[in-house]
Every structure is written in structure tokens, then in C-alpha cells.
Design goal:
4-stranded mixed beta sheet; binds copper (II) ion; Immunoglobulin-like
């Protein structure tokens, strides 16, 4: 291999490496934007909002702002929290599209729905 060939080869490899690094950079910075979050507040014996629509991949966090305990239980067993005391949280990440009705197992009249689409 001549020294000129080695030089050309070296420049080609360096250019390729830089291209790969620049191409990868925007993907790395885009990841946090894909990790969407949403919040449902539990207060005064109700979930707010009663219907929350999110994109697939969104992590929903319920927070109990009421001064009595509540739970977050999916009607079709997709998710189930422990008993949440005041200011305690429960999170679930919705990966599949669909309707997810849920209720509070302590107060079954408390119902709401997460819509994933
Ligand atoms: Cu409750």
C-alpha cells in the first residue's frame, strides 16, 4: 500500500466517522422528547381530567391530592396501584393504543379513562 493510498484511506475513514457522529447526535437529543409524560390529579373523590388522551409511549402519573386514600385500578387489569395516601404517586407507561377505563377500588363510583392513540 503506497503512502498516498494510506492517506486517502485515512481521510475517508475520518470523514465516515464524523458523518456517523453527526448523524447520531440529533437522534440522541430527540430521545427525551419521545419520553412524554402526563399527570392525573386525584382530588375531591374524582380523577382530573376524567378522560386523558395521550400518545403511545406516554408515562401517566397519578397523584393523590385528596386528604383520604385512593387507588388507581384498570378495569381490564392493565395496571393497578397500591393504596395512595395524600401526595403519593403512581405511574404507568402506555405502550399500546386503546381505551383504558379505570376506577378507585375503595370508591368504585370514581371512574375515568385514559385514551391512547
Ligand atoms: Cu378513592
Amino acid at each position: 500500500m503506497s503512502s498516498k493510498t494510506k492517506l486517502v484511506l485515512g481521510i475517508t475513514v475520518a470523514t465516515l466517522l464524523m458523518t456517523v457522529m453527526f448523524a447520531a447526535a440529533p437522534k440522541l437529543s430527540a430521545n427525551p422528547q419521545q419520553a412524554a409524560t402526563a399527570e392525573v390529579k386525584i382530588d375531591n373523590f374524582s380523577f382530573g381530567p376524567a378522560t386523558l388522551t395521550v400518545a403511545p409511549g406516554t408515562t401517566v402519573t397519578w397523584i393523590n391530592r385528596d386528604d383520604i386514600p385512593h387507588t388507581v385500578v384498570s378495569t381490564d387489569s392493565a395496571f393497578k396501584s397500591k393504596v395512595l395516601d395524600t401526595d403519593e404517586k403512581f405511574s404507568f407507561t402506555f405502550t399500546k393504543a386503546g381505551n383504558y377505563p379505570y376506577f378507585c377500588s375503595i370508591h368504585p363510583k370514581m371512574t375515568a379513562t385514559i385514551v391512547v392513540k
